[in-house]
Amino acid sequence: MNPAAIDALRTYYGYDRFRAGQSTLIEAILDGKDVLGIMPTGAGKSICYQIPAILLPGVTLVISPLISLMKDQVDSLNTAGIEATYINSSLSVKETNERMRDVAAGHYKLLYVAPERLESEYFRELIRGLEVPLIAVDEAHCVSQWGHDFRPSYMTIVRLLRDIEPRPVMAAFTATATDVVKEDIVERLKLREPARVTTGYARSNLAMSVVRNADKRDYVARYVKEHSDQAGIIYASTRREVESVYSFVHSLGVPVGKYHAGLSEEDRARTQDAFQRDDVQIIVATNAFGMGIDKSNVRFVIHNNMPKNLEAYYQEAGRAGRDGDPGECVLLFSPQDVVTQKFFIDQSEASDERKRNDYRLLNDMVQYSHTGDCLQLTIVRYFGEENGEPCGTCANCTDTREQKDVTEDAKMIFACISEMKQRFGVTLTAKVLRGANDAKIRQFNFDRLRSYGRLKHMAEKPLVQLIHALVADGYLRMSDTAYPVVQLMEPVLEVMRGESRVYHKAEPEAPPVSRTSGRSGSSRSGGSSAPVANAELFNALRQLRKRIADGEGLPPFVIFHDATLREMCEAMPANERAMRSVKGVGAAKYEKYGQAFLDLIRHHSD
């Protein structure tokens, strides 16, 4: 590994070694090669372009989609002693012009901008006069029309390349991307034979669960009560639902904020700032909140409604546990969520081809919500990783309920679908099997089928859930249409011939509130769910960090991460050398904050 890169990592970030994939990407960039990095949230994507930016001449241009993310990253860089700035719509004309002059004068190593800024001829003229060795594109999946968050403004990035001589190295990063999206990123950003690194999608510190048919308000109330000392995000699919959940959580006496596109930009910024600074414990938000959010100590993410696809879900769920400590991701599923997402697709102005793709992705999300397999493994396989082991921590892996042989019921479902010529949906299939007196059933003469009424002993909801489980297990599939029809798959033949059996776990009557409660050894230390050597000192260090952060107008995690404070509690450093050996304490941070933390540790020891 490049010795200068190791030295920069130690000096500015306070770490002695790179994480998986980081060194490969950094070396490729320093060798003048384009790169594509697919690294899950918390894996350290930013360092992969920040270290080269420090070592390369000139200024590195970082394309980032969110104003709040830019500010957090620039604050963190400046605190670590790295000259960085941003230019976006939050600045006045005067501030923008001042920063442009400072950039032109060579005062910064990194410049963060939104993709929309690239449409400004004034900005492009500035760039033409600069030495730009590297362009880093964060959240690069936004360039793909097949990704979950396509942004047309990302298409302006390639046009910028024509203005820069010599051509800079292009580095694209994102947390999640299917094979189709990866190829789209390479094509649309014109990456030249990029070095590719995918570090794996599995997040071993996250406990995932899907809760079906729960009373959502009751579940949220119980969960928030059990995790009263932890930071979390609750996602909802619509503005109205955000307002409703926010009012409910607020009524519980919990410090909570709300975030959606219907609020003013000032209100959204104020809410996110309060959350970043630990003044607000929970955010209730639409998916407008959080892409690239830098807050490291989010301990849980609850989806009050099912997202539109697995890419969006994993991006949002992955905001838990960025610091590597245990986190929990809960999806509260109800059939109405599917109706809502279909409505969004129907009302969009996308092409028919795009809509068909969106329906397919939605069906994959529904299958995830009903699978009995390891939830983590289901996700990593969705992204193309075939090799993997069950996580051992998700709700399905820890489920001790006995498997029930449902082969005969499954055979009856398969027969009914066949008799209905594989042309109808799950709900009508269930009604036929239950022998419902329905006008549509009489219209198609389905009341004359041999399978009509053969499963009348089952209630409709468990029957619908069983059909969805058979889809998730690969016996059936849903068509990629606005009104998906259920179809038979090849494994059905073995079941019908008596060569294999079908097993299924019945839905629990009262789903557990938490997969992680009580397993972490936490002593209610203000949101950390990893064991702490000395909870009293840890809390004192957190309070000191909060006072410093408030005084400087920064989020606390910009000063030091929770993991750094925990290591201080374990190592009990008594001098500069010992403090500098704590992970996350770089030279600039020690210079600014080290003595205050040393004094507190020394006072606590005395």
UniProtKB/TrEMBL annotation:
<dbReference type="GO" id="GO:0043590">
    <property type="term" value="C:bacterial nucleoid"/>
</dbReference>
<keyword id="KW-0067">ATP-binding</keyword>
<keyword id="KW-0233">DNA recombination</keyword>
<keyword id="KW-0479">Metal-binding</keyword>
<keyword id="KW-0238">DNA-binding</keyword>
<dbReference type="GO" id="GO:0030894">
    <property type="term" value="C:replisome"/>
</dbReference>
<protein>
    <recommendedName>
        <fullName>DNA helicase RecQ</fullName>
        <ecNumber>5.6.2.4</ecNumber>
    </recommendedName>
</protein>
<dbReference type="Pfam" id="PF00270">
    <property type="entry name" value="DEAD"/>
</dbReference>
<keyword id="KW-0378">Hydrolase</keyword>
<dbReference type="InterPro" id="IPR044876">
    <property type="entry name" value="HRDC_dom_sf"/>
</dbReference>
<feature type="region of interest" description="Disordered">
    <location>
        <begin position="503"/>
        <end position="530"/>
    </location>
</feature>
<dbReference type="Pfam" id="PF00570">
    <property type="entry name" value="HRDC"/>
</dbReference>
<dbReference type="InterPro" id="IPR036390">
    <property type="entry name" value="WH_DNA-bd_sf"/>
</dbReference>
<dbReference type="GO" id="GO:0006281">
    <property type="term" value="P:DNA repair"/>
</dbReference>
<feature type="domain" description="Helicase C-terminal">
    <location>
        <begin position="215"/>
        <end position="366"/>
    </location>
</feature>
<dbReference type="GO" id="GO:0006310">
    <property type="term" value="P:DNA recombination"/>
</dbReference>
<dbReference type="InterPro" id="IPR002121">
    <property type="entry name" value="HRDC_dom"/>
</dbReference>
<dbReference type="GO" id="GO:0016787">
    <property type="term" value="F:hydrolase activity"/>
</dbReference>
<dbReference type="GO" id="GO:0043138">
    <property type="term" value="F:3'-5' DNA helicase activity"/>
</dbReference>
<dbReference type="InterPro" id="IPR018982">
    <property type="entry name" value="RQC_domain"/>
</dbReference>
<keyword id="KW-0347">Helicase</keyword>
<keyword id="KW-0227">DNA damage</keyword>
<keyword id="KW-0547">Nucleotide-binding</keyword>
<feature type="compositionally biased region" description="Low complexity">
    <location>
        <begin position="514"/>
        <end position="529"/>
    </location>
</feature>
<dbReference type="InterPro" id="IPR011545">
    <property type="entry name" value="DEAD/DEAH_box_helicase_dom"/>
</dbReference>
<keyword id="KW-0862">Zinc</keyword>
<dbReference type="InterPro" id="IPR006293">
    <property type="entry name" value="DNA_helicase_ATP-dep_RecQ_bac"/>
</dbReference>
<dbReference type="InterPro" id="IPR004589">
    <property type="entry name" value="DNA_helicase_ATP-dep_RecQ"/>
</dbReference>
<dbReference type="GO" id="GO:0009378">
    <property type="term" value="F:four-way junction helicase activity"/>
</dbReference>
<dbReference type="GO" id="GO:0003677">
    <property type="term" value="F:DNA binding"/>
</dbReference>
<keyword id="KW-0234">DNA repair</keyword>
<dbReference type="GO" id="GO:0005524">
    <property type="term" value="F:ATP binding"/>
</dbReference>
<dbReference type="InterPro" id="IPR010997">
    <property type="entry name" value="HRDC-like_sf"/>
</dbReference>
<keyword id="KW-0413">Isomerase</keyword>
<dbReference type="InterPro" id="IPR027417">
    <property type="entry name" value="P-loop_NTPase"/>
</dbReference>
<dbReference type="InterPro" id="IPR036388">
    <property type="entry name" value="WH-like_DNA-bd_sf"/>
</dbReference>
<dbReference type="GO" id="GO:0006260">
    <property type="term" value="P:DNA replication"/>
</dbReference>
<dbReference type="GO" id="GO:0046872">
    <property type="term" value="F:metal ion binding"/>
</dbReference>
<feature type="domain" description="Helicase ATP-binding">
    <location>
        <begin position="26"/>
        <end position="195"/>
    </location>
</feature>
<comment type="similarity">
    <text>Belongs to the helicase family. RecQ subfamily.</text>
</comment>
<feature type="domain" description="HRDC">
    <location>
        <begin position="531"/>
        <end position="606"/>
    </location>
</feature>
<dbReference type="Pfam" id="PF00271">
    <property type="entry name" value="Helicase_C"/>
</dbReference>
